[in-house]
Every structure is written in C-alpha cells, then in structure tokens.
C-alpha cells in the first residue's frame, strides 16, 4: 500500500514546490503585458538624455532627475543597481508608455500590483494609466544585489503645473 503511494506523494510535493517557486518569483503579483524589442544601450541612453533635456524639471529626488513629460508620452526608464531613472511626475488619469531597460543585470519592475521582468538588452514597454492622485508603486521585485530592497522608483501623480 505504501509503495503505491510514493509516486503520488512525490508528484504532490513537486507541484507544491513549483507553486511556491512561482509565487516567490512573482511575489504573488500579476504579470504585466509588455511589448518587447531589442535596443542598443547607447541608443536607449540617447533617448533617456533627450527626455531629461526636453522635460526635466531641474529638480532631483535622491540624485535622480525628475521629469514631467506630456500625457501620451513614450518614456525611457533605466533600471540599474539600485535605481530607476528618471523620477516621474505624471498627470492624473492619463496614459503613458514606459520603455523599461535593465542596464546592468536582471531586474523587474513591479508597477502597482503587477510586474514585468527586465533583462539587459531588451526593452519592455508597459502602458500605464495613472490614478486620479497619489503615487504609483515602482519597485524592483527581482533580487539584484545587496541594496535590492532600496530599488524603488518614483511615479508621482500631480495635477498640471
């Protein structure tokens, strides 16, 4: 009787471990739908610098430049140890496209209650519609080093200034 139970017990244990791995990997977050394309780091950096020049506020948040792009913008966001750049000030109730690139190692972007995995050399495009007010959570959910827990970006929803 016990010998016939062993394969079933092994299968159940494997299923439980697999489920635990998936839940631990995503933190229970939903996976964001994202368009993906390849990008040369230098080209992406150029777009990032162009955004800072065109829409920078002249302010910084913990050394990260703050930008206020117009609604509907395509916004290049760099993920690197241990920051997301730039810090964003976005209008309430508007839609934006975040182009996310991991510069140095694997990261992920947990945006609100969902996430997208970021790998170097691949840009993930996530559509974000902002709430009426407040902040949108942006945090790395993939262990990327000792200061991983401090890798929190800034998406502040502000009325037009």
UniProtKB/TrEMBL annotation:
One example GO MF annotation: cytochrome-c oxidase activity
Protein name: Heme/copper-type cytochrome/quinol oxidase
Coiled coil: none
Gene Ontology CC annotation, any one: membrane
Gene3D superfamilies: Cupredoxins - blue copper proteins
Ranges for domain Cytochrome oxidase subunit II copper A binding: 68-161
Record InterPro entries: CcO_II-like_C, Cupredoxin
């Amino acid at each position: 009787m016990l010998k016939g139970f062993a394969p079933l017990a092994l299968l159940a244990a494997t299923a439980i471990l697999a489920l635990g791995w998936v839940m631990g990997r995503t933190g229970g977050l939903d996976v964001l739908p994202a368009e993906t394309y390849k990008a040369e780091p230098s080209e992406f950096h150029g777009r990032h610098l162009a955004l800072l020049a065109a829409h920078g506020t002249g302010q910084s948040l913990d050394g990260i430049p703050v930008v206020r792009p117009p609604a509907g913008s395509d916004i290049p966001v760099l993920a690197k140890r241990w920051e997301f750049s730039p810090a964003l000030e976005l209008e309430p109730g508007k839609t934006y496209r975040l182009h996310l690139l991991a510069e140095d190692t694997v990261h992920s972007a947990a945006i609100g209650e969902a996430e997208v995995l970021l790998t170097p050399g691949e840009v993930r495009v996530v559509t974000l519609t902002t709430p009426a007010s407040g902040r949108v959570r942006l945090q790395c959910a993939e262990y990327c080093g000792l200061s991983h827990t401090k890798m929190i970006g800034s998406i502040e929803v502000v009325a037009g200034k």
